[in-house]
Amino acid sequence: MNIYDFTLTELEEYLVKNGFKKYNATQIIEWIYEKKVYDFNKMTNLSKKLISFLNENLVFENLEVIEVEKSTLANKYLLKLKDNNKIECVLMNHDYGYSLCVSSQVGCNMGCSFCESGRLKKVRDLTLGELVGQVLCVSKYENIRIDSIVVMGIGEPFDNFNNIKRFISVVTNNKMINIGQRHLTISTCGLVPKIYEFADLETGVNLAISLHAPNNEIRDKIMKVNHAYKIEKVMEALDYYISKTNRRVTIEYIMLEGINDSDECARELAKLIKGKLMYVNLIPYNETSNIDMKRSNLFKIKSFYDILKSNNINVTIRKEMGGNLSAACGQLRANAERL
Ligand code: SF4
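A: This is the predicted complex of the input protein with iron/sulfur cluster.
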Protein backbone atom coordinates (compact mmCIF):
# COMPACT_ATOMS: atom_id res chain seq x y z
CA MET A 1 0.00 0.00 0.00
CA ASN A 2 1.01 3.53 -0.81
CA ILE A 3 1.57 5.73 2.27
CA TYR A 4 0.09 8.68 0.33
CA ASP A 5 -3.19 6.77 0.07
CA PHE A 6 -4.11 7.57 3.68
CA THR A 7 -5.81 10.52 5.27
CA LEU A 8 -4.60 11.17 8.81
CA THR A 9 -7.69 9.52 10.33
CA GLU A 10 -7.32 6.49 8.08
CA LEU A 11 -3.67 6.10 9.05
CA GLU A 12 -4.57 6.33 12.74
CA GLU A 13 -7.21 3.62 12.31
CA TYR A 14 -4.84 1.43 10.32
CA LEU A 15 -2.09 1.64 12.92
CA VAL A 16 -4.43 1.06 15.88
CA LYS A 17 -5.91 -1.96 14.08
CA ASN A 18 -2.39 -3.35 13.78
CA GLY A 19 -1.50 -2.87 17.43
CA PHE A 20 0.20 0.54 17.33
CA LYS A 21 -0.70 3.87 18.92
CA LYS A 22 -2.93 6.49 17.33
CA TYR A 23 -0.28 9.20 17.84
CA ASN A 24 2.18 7.20 15.73
CA ALA A 25 0.20 8.34 12.68
CA THR A 26 0.88 12.01 13.47
CA GLN A 27 4.58 11.23 14.00
CA ILE A 28 4.81 9.57 10.56
CA ILE A 29 2.83 12.35 8.86
CA GLU A 30 5.13 14.99 10.40
CA TRP A 31 8.19 13.21 9.06
CA ILE A 32 6.75 13.05 5.57
CA TYR A 33 4.96 16.37 5.14
CA GLU A 34 6.98 18.68 7.41
CA LYS A 35 10.46 17.19 7.43
CA LYS A 36 10.26 15.75 3.89
CA VAL A 37 11.71 12.41 4.99
CA TYR A 38 10.67 9.63 2.64
CA ASP A 39 12.33 6.68 4.35
CA PHE A 40 10.76 4.95 7.38
CA ASN A 41 14.24 3.94 8.64
CA LYS A 42 15.10 7.63 9.14
CA MET A 43 12.06 8.35 11.34
CA THR A 44 14.07 8.30 14.52
CA ASN A 45 11.25 8.68 17.05
CA LEU A 46 9.46 5.50 15.89
CA SER A 47 10.01 2.13 17.54
CA LYS A 48 11.96 -0.58 15.69
CA LYS A 49 8.83 -2.71 15.64
CA LEU A 50 6.81 0.04 13.97
CA ILE A 51 9.55 0.80 11.43
CA SER A 52 9.73 -2.82 10.44
CA PHE A 53 5.91 -3.01 10.16
CA LEU A 54 5.90 0.08 7.94
CA ASN A 55 8.68 -1.28 5.73
CA GLU A 56 6.84 -4.55 5.29
CA ASN A 57 3.45 -3.04 4.50
CA LEU A 58 3.79 0.44 3.03
CA VAL A 59 5.73 2.10 0.21
CA PHE A 60 6.38 5.66 -0.93
CA GLU A 61 4.86 5.58 -4.38
CA ASN A 62 6.11 8.73 -6.11
CA LEU A 63 4.93 9.88 -9.52
CA GLU A 64 7.54 10.29 -12.22
CA VAL A 65 7.94 13.43 -14.33
CA ILE A 66 8.45 12.25 -17.91
CA GLU A 67 8.03 15.50 -19.81
CA VAL A 68 7.90 19.20 -18.97
CA GLU A 69 6.81 22.03 -21.22
CA LYS A 70 7.84 25.43 -19.90
CA SER A 71 6.64 28.93 -20.64
CA THR A 72 7.09 32.21 -18.79
CA LEU A 73 4.09 31.91 -16.51
CA ALA A 74 3.23 28.21 -16.52
CA ASN A 75 4.80 24.78 -16.73
CA LYS A 76 2.97 21.69 -17.88
CA TYR A 77 4.06 18.28 -16.57
CA LEU A 78 3.37 14.86 -17.99
CA LEU A 79 3.48 12.40 -15.10
CA LYS A 80 3.71 8.62 -15.21
CA LEU A 81 1.65 6.52 -12.81
CA LYS A 82 2.68 3.15 -11.45
CA ASP A 83 0.63 1.28 -14.08
CA ASN A 84 2.23 3.40 -16.86
CA ASN A 85 -0.87 5.50 -17.42
CA LYS A 86 -0.09 9.18 -17.87
CA ILE A 87 -1.70 12.33 -16.52
CA GLU A 88 -1.00 16.05 -16.70
CA CYS A 89 -0.79 18.85 -14.25
CA VAL A 90 -0.02 22.53 -14.76
CA LEU A 91 1.87 24.87 -12.46
CA MET A 92 0.96 28.55 -12.78
CA ASN A 93 3.10 31.32 -11.40
CA HIS A 94 0.65 34.01 -10.31
CA ASP A 95 1.67 37.21 -8.54
CA TYR A 96 -0.06 35.78 -5.44
CA GLY A 97 1.92 32.53 -5.53
CA TYR A 98 2.13 29.13 -7.21
CA SER A 99 -1.10 27.45 -8.20
CA LEU A 100 -1.26 23.83 -9.33
CA CYS A 101 -4.00 22.45 -11.58
CA VAL A 102 -4.30 18.71 -10.94
CA SER A 103 -6.04 15.88 -12.78
CA SER A 104 -8.65 13.67 -11.12
CA GLN A 105 -8.95 10.78 -13.59
CA VAL A 106 -7.06 9.13 -16.44
CA GLY A 107 -9.23 10.37 -19.35
CA CYS A 108 -12.81 11.48 -18.83
CA ASN A 109 -16.24 10.06 -19.63
CA MET A 110 -18.10 13.35 -19.73
CA GLY A 111 -17.42 13.79 -23.44
CA CYS A 112 -17.52 17.57 -23.73
CA SER A 113 -17.13 18.17 -27.45
CA PHE A 114 -14.46 20.89 -27.17
CA CYS A 115 -12.23 18.93 -24.79
CA GLU A 116 -9.17 16.89 -25.61
CA SER A 117 -9.47 14.90 -22.37
CA GLY A 118 -13.10 14.09 -23.07
CA ARG A 119 -12.22 12.84 -26.55
CA LEU A 120 -10.30 10.09 -24.79
CA LYS A 121 -12.52 7.97 -22.57
CA LYS A 122 -11.92 7.43 -18.90
CA VAL A 123 -9.44 4.67 -18.17
CA ARG A 124 -9.80 4.88 -14.40
CA ASP A 125 -10.14 7.16 -11.40
CA LEU A 126 -7.01 8.46 -9.73
CA THR A 127 -6.35 7.14 -6.25
CA LEU A 128 -5.90 9.48 -3.31
CA GLY A 129 -2.17 8.72 -3.47
CA GLU A 130 -2.06 9.85 -7.10
CA LEU A 131 -3.96 13.06 -6.36
CA VAL A 132 -1.61 13.87 -3.49
CA GLY A 133 1.33 12.58 -5.56
CA GLN A 134 0.85 15.35 -8.16
CA VAL A 135 1.25 18.04 -5.50
CA LEU A 136 4.28 16.39 -3.88
CA CYS A 137 5.90 15.56 -7.20
CA VAL A 138 5.73 19.08 -8.66
CA SER A 139 6.69 20.86 -5.44
CA LYS A 140 9.69 18.56 -5.09
CA TYR A 141 10.66 18.84 -8.77
CA GLU A 142 10.59 22.66 -8.64
CA ASN A 143 11.60 22.95 -4.99
CA ILE A 144 8.70 25.27 -4.21
CA ARG A 145 5.73 25.46 -1.91
CA ILE A 146 2.43 25.34 -3.76
CA ASP A 147 0.02 28.00 -2.48
CA SER A 148 -3.22 27.00 -4.10
CA ILE A 149 -4.72 24.03 -5.94
CA VAL A 150 -7.43 23.76 -8.57
CA VAL A 151 -8.85 20.35 -9.47
CA MET A 152 -9.51 21.27 -13.07
CA GLY A 153 -7.20 19.05 -15.10
CA ILE A 154 -8.04 15.79 -16.85
CA GLY A 155 -11.24 14.17 -15.54
CA GLU A 156 -14.46 15.08 -13.77
CA PRO A 157 -13.64 15.36 -10.04
CA PHE A 158 -17.19 14.62 -8.90
CA ASP A 159 -17.07 11.35 -10.85
CA ASN A 160 -14.29 10.42 -8.39
CA PHE A 161 -16.09 11.98 -5.45
CA ASN A 162 -14.92 9.82 -2.58
CA ASN A 163 -11.24 10.31 -3.39
CA ILE A 164 -11.79 14.04 -3.90
CA LYS A 165 -13.33 14.24 -0.42
CA ARG A 166 -10.30 12.46 1.02
CA PHE A 167 -7.98 14.71 -1.04
CA ILE A 168 -9.64 17.79 0.48
CA SER A 169 -8.88 16.34 3.90
CA VAL A 170 -5.17 15.79 3.08
CA VAL A 171 -4.73 19.16 1.34
CA THR A 172 -6.34 21.18 4.11
CA ASN A 173 -4.95 19.28 7.12
CA ASN A 174 -2.36 21.54 8.76
CA LYS A 175 -0.11 18.55 9.47
CA MET A 176 -0.24 17.40 5.86
CA ILE A 177 -0.24 19.55 2.69
CA ASN A 178 -1.61 22.45 4.73
CA ILE A 179 -3.31 24.61 2.13
CA GLY A 180 -6.33 26.57 3.39
CA GLN A 181 -9.78 25.59 2.17
CA ARG A 182 -10.17 28.91 0.44
CA HIS A 183 -7.11 28.16 -1.68
CA LEU A 184 -8.57 24.94 -3.02
CA THR A 185 -11.07 24.89 -5.88
CA ILE A 186 -12.96 21.93 -7.31
CA SER A 187 -14.37 22.29 -10.80
CA THR A 188 -17.30 20.23 -12.07
CA CYS A 189 -19.11 20.07 -15.41
CA GLY A 190 -22.37 19.92 -13.47
CA LEU A 191 -23.06 16.56 -11.80
CA VAL A 192 -26.03 17.90 -9.88
CA PRO A 193 -26.42 15.28 -7.10
CA LYS A 194 -22.74 15.66 -6.25
CA ILE A 195 -23.03 19.47 -6.07
CA TYR A 196 -25.59 18.93 -3.28
CA GLU A 197 -23.32 16.41 -1.53
CA PHE A 198 -20.39 18.78 -1.86
CA ALA A 199 -22.45 21.63 -0.42
CA ASP A 200 -23.44 19.44 2.52
CA LEU A 201 -19.76 18.92 3.38
CA GLU A 202 -19.74 22.64 4.29
CA THR A 203 -16.01 22.79 3.83
CA GLY A 204 -15.32 26.32 2.60
CA VAL A 205 -13.60 24.82 -0.45
CA ASN A 206 -14.38 26.77 -3.64
CA LEU A 207 -16.60 25.46 -6.39
CA ALA A 208 -16.27 26.23 -10.09
CA ILE A 209 -18.77 25.10 -12.68
CA SER A 210 -17.99 24.56 -16.34
CA LEU A 211 -21.12 26.12 -17.79
CA HIS A 212 -19.93 27.16 -21.25
CA ALA A 213 -23.44 27.99 -22.51
CA PRO A 214 -26.30 30.22 -21.39
CA ASN A 215 -29.11 27.86 -22.46
CA ASN A 216 -29.92 24.19 -22.87
CA GLU A 217 -29.99 24.30 -26.64
CA ILE A 218 -26.32 25.24 -26.93
CA ARG A 219 -25.20 23.31 -23.85
CA ASP A 220 -26.84 20.11 -25.13
CA LYS A 221 -24.72 20.39 -28.27
CA ILE A 222 -21.36 20.83 -26.59
CA MET A 223 -21.73 19.10 -23.21
CA LYS A 224 -23.26 15.64 -22.95
CA VAL A 225 -23.76 16.10 -19.22
CA ASN A 226 -26.52 18.58 -20.05
CA HIS A 227 -28.67 15.72 -21.37
CA ALA A 228 -28.79 14.41 -17.81
CA TYR A 229 -28.74 17.68 -15.85
CA LYS A 230 -30.30 20.73 -17.47
CA ILE A 231 -29.09 24.24 -16.73
CA GLU A 232 -32.07 24.98 -14.45
CA LYS A 233 -31.16 22.00 -12.25
CA VAL A 234 -27.51 23.06 -12.17
CA MET A 235 -28.54 26.57 -11.11
CA GLU A 236 -30.79 25.22 -8.34
CA ALA A 237 -27.90 23.10 -7.06
CA LEU A 238 -25.56 26.11 -7.13
CA ASP A 239 -28.11 28.21 -5.23
CA TYR A 240 -28.16 25.44 -2.62
CA TYR A 241 -24.33 25.41 -2.44
CA ILE A 242 -24.28 29.20 -1.97
CA SER A 243 -27.00 29.06 0.71
CA LYS A 244 -25.00 26.42 2.63
CA THR A 245 -21.55 27.94 2.28
CA ASN A 246 -21.97 31.61 1.39
CA ARG A 247 -19.07 31.06 -1.02
CA ARG A 248 -18.95 32.69 -4.42
CA VAL A 249 -19.21 30.26 -7.35
CA THR A 250 -17.00 30.63 -10.41
CA ILE A 251 -18.75 30.19 -13.75
CA GLU A 252 -16.24 28.91 -16.30
CA TYR A 253 -17.14 29.90 -19.85
CA ILE A 254 -14.95 28.81 -22.78
CA MET A 255 -15.34 31.16 -25.73
CA LEU A 256 -16.01 29.12 -28.89
CA GLU A 257 -16.29 30.94 -32.19
CA GLY A 258 -19.80 30.97 -33.61
CA ILE A 259 -21.12 28.59 -30.93
CA ASN A 260 -21.55 30.41 -27.62
CA ASP A 261 -19.93 33.80 -28.14
CA SER A 262 -22.71 36.00 -29.54
CA ASP A 263 -23.92 39.18 -27.85
CA GLU A 264 -27.26 37.44 -27.38
CA CYS A 265 -25.50 34.62 -25.47
CA ALA A 266 -23.87 37.23 -23.23
CA ARG A 267 -27.24 38.84 -22.47
CA GLU A 268 -28.77 35.42 -21.74
CA LEU A 269 -25.90 34.52 -19.43
CA ALA A 270 -26.26 37.83 -17.60
CA LYS A 271 -29.96 37.16 -17.09
CA LEU A 272 -29.26 33.63 -15.86
CA ILE A 273 -26.89 34.63 -13.09
CA LYS A 274 -27.89 38.20 -12.27
CA GLY A 275 -28.14 38.79 -8.51
CA LYS A 276 -26.42 35.52 -7.65
CA LEU A 277 -23.15 35.18 -5.74
CA MET A 278 -21.28 34.15 -8.89
CA TYR A 279 -18.60 35.48 -11.13
CA VAL A 280 -17.75 34.61 -14.70
CA ASN A 281 -14.36 33.58 -15.96
CA LEU A 282 -14.19 33.89 -19.75
CA ILE A 283 -11.64 31.46 -21.16
CA PRO A 284 -10.18 31.90 -24.64
CA TYR A 285 -10.37 28.39 -26.14
CA ASN A 286 -7.15 26.44 -26.65
CA GLU A 287 -7.46 25.01 -30.12
CA THR A 288 -6.20 21.51 -30.86
CA SER A 289 -5.75 19.79 -34.21
CA ASN A 290 -8.04 16.91 -33.15
CA ILE A 291 -11.12 19.06 -32.59
CA ASP A 292 -12.76 21.25 -35.20
CA MET A 293 -13.57 24.25 -33.02
CA LYS A 294 -12.10 27.71 -33.02
CA ARG A 295 -11.32 30.29 -30.39
CA SER A 296 -13.50 33.41 -30.44
CA ASN A 297 -11.62 36.45 -31.64
CA LEU A 298 -10.59 39.13 -29.17
CA PHE A 299 -13.25 41.54 -30.37
CA LYS A 300 -16.00 38.99 -29.58
CA ILE A 301 -14.53 38.18 -26.19
CA LYS A 302 -14.32 41.88 -25.31
CA SER A 303 -17.87 42.51 -26.47
CA PHE A 304 -19.11 39.53 -24.39
CA TYR A 305 -17.19 40.87 -21.41
CA ASP A 306 -18.63 44.39 -21.85
CA ILE A 307 -22.22 43.12 -21.97
CA LEU A 308 -21.73 41.15 -18.75
CA LYS A 309 -20.08 44.15 -17.10
CA SER A 310 -22.87 46.49 -18.15
CA ASN A 311 -25.28 44.07 -16.47
CA ASN A 312 -23.28 44.30 -13.23
CA ILE A 313 -21.89 40.80 -13.52
CA ASN A 314 -18.43 40.21 -12.05
CA VAL A 315 -16.34 38.95 -14.92
CA THR A 316 -12.72 38.38 -15.85
CA ILE A 317 -11.01 37.17 -18.99
CA ARG A 318 -8.63 34.39 -18.09
CA LYS A 319 -5.04 35.45 -18.49
CA GLU A 320 -3.24 33.23 -20.93
CA MET A 321 -0.63 31.44 -18.87
CA GLY A 322 0.40 28.75 -21.28
CA GLY A 323 2.12 30.63 -24.12
CA ASN A 324 3.09 27.93 -26.59
CA LEU A 325 2.47 24.95 -24.29
CA SER A 326 0.30 22.07 -25.53
CA ALA A 327 -2.26 24.17 -23.79
CA ALA A 328 -5.47 22.21 -24.27
CA CYS A 329 -6.16 20.10 -21.24
CA GLY A 330 -5.16 16.53 -22.07
CA GLN A 331 -3.19 17.48 -25.16
CA LEU A 332 0.23 16.55 -23.79
CA ARG A 333 -1.08 13.17 -22.65
CA ALA A 334 -2.79 12.57 -25.98
CA ASN A 335 0.41 13.39 -27.87
CA ALA A 336 2.52 11.17 -25.61
CA GLU A 337 0.15 8.22 -25.92
CA ARG A 338 -0.44 8.93 -29.64
CA LEU A 339 -4.18 8.81 -28.92
S1 SF4 B 1 -14.16 19.53 -19.96
FE1 SF4 B 1 -13.77 18.42 -18.04
S2 SF4 B 1 -15.64 17.20 -17.77
FE2 SF4 B 1 -15.67 17.85 -19.91
S3 SF4 B 1 -14.68 16.14 -20.99
FE3 SF4 B 1 -13.08 17.63 -20.47
S4 SF4 B 1 -12.17 16.90 -18.57
FE4 SF4 B 1 -14.18 15.90 -18.83
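The mean pLDDT is 93. The CA atoms of residues 80 and 308 lie 41 Å apart.
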